[in-house]
């Protein structure tokens, strides 16, 4: 297609939500018409801290979300991580290129260990998942990976592994990649503090009903000191304005609302009403497409099967190059 091979994906720990839409799905929709894009359902990675029955169930849920937002299987290779065994074999070889100490220093890993309260009871697969990510990225010769700012250290570690492998091989076989970080930061939950996430229980799913959207917006934090309409209001840290910045395309309209709110004379109910209209307009067609797709789960799984077959072909080529460089191709 054009210049970049893009690899992106989601851990199959639950349906996708508005935070995913802003953080990655919007980019993926743009990329599918410009680049060769691989979309991975990271079920094997999800097993590091999620029950297998949940992971299995959510493969279909995430696939439905992908298709419902408009990701076209004719333009993207959508595949299931665990069904591409070449990735596991690459991970095994890459494990020799990184130390435990380096993995423990990875800022993303350190923060997630803290959040999950693993302390020293860290599953080995969880500690080593930067190596698994390196295998996922390099298997498809991805030159760009859309990630949140907190995931940038993972890309850095991937490139360290690439450089070490190429040095060992004596030639450039694997490609370094770069992080594509969205301009819009992570969305907060309705309280304006914790980021929106399934684990925090503060997410608005892309399949949310009209009533769920209404209740979500009503519960959103604005400014605790904005007690009367005429009181000057605070825009910074106001969750409603954070969402309006993300979802209202008319920037001048949002700027005008902010100016009126700061000056005083604009009710919280008014800005929430504007936001609810935007979210209802955004989610309704996604929800409807998702409901229609869910009527034929076998068709969705067939899309994943075909994408996984294509992904295996590409990953197998890279694996063969890696094994040849390591002189492990005895019967070639």
Automatic annotation (TrEMBL):
<dbReference type="GO" id="GO:0004830">
    <property type="term" value="F:tryptophan-tRNA ligase activity"/>
</dbReference>
<keyword id="KW-0436">Ligase</keyword>
<keyword id="KW-0648">Protein biosynthesis</keyword>
<dbReference type="InterPro" id="IPR002306">
    <property type="entry name" value="Trp-tRNA-ligase"/>
</dbReference>
<dbReference type="GO" id="GO:0006436">
    <property type="term" value="P:tryptophanyl-tRNA aminoacylation"/>
</dbReference>
<dbReference type="InterPro" id="IPR002305">
    <property type="entry name" value="aa-tRNA-synth_Ic"/>
</dbReference>
<keyword id="KW-0547">Nucleotide-binding</keyword>
<protein>
    <recommendedName>
        <fullName>Tryptophan--tRNA ligase</fullName>
        <ecNumber>6.1.1.2</ecNumber>
    </recommendedName>
</protein>
<keyword id="KW-0030">Aminoacyl-tRNA synthetase</keyword>
<dbReference type="InterPro" id="IPR014729">
    <property type="entry name" value="Rossmann-like_a/b/a_fold"/>
</dbReference>
<comment type="similarity">
    <text>Belongs to the class-I aminoacyl-tRNA synthetase family.</text>
</comment>
<dbReference type="GO" id="GO:0005829">
    <property type="term" value="C:cytosol"/>
</dbReference>
<dbReference type="Pfam" id="PF00579">
    <property type="entry name" value="tRNA-synt_1b"/>
</dbReference>
<dbReference type="InterPro" id="IPR050203">
    <property type="entry name" value="Trp-tRNA_synthetase"/>
</dbReference>
<keyword id="KW-0067">ATP-binding</keyword>
<dbReference type="GO" id="GO:0005524">
    <property type="term" value="F:ATP binding"/>
</dbReference>
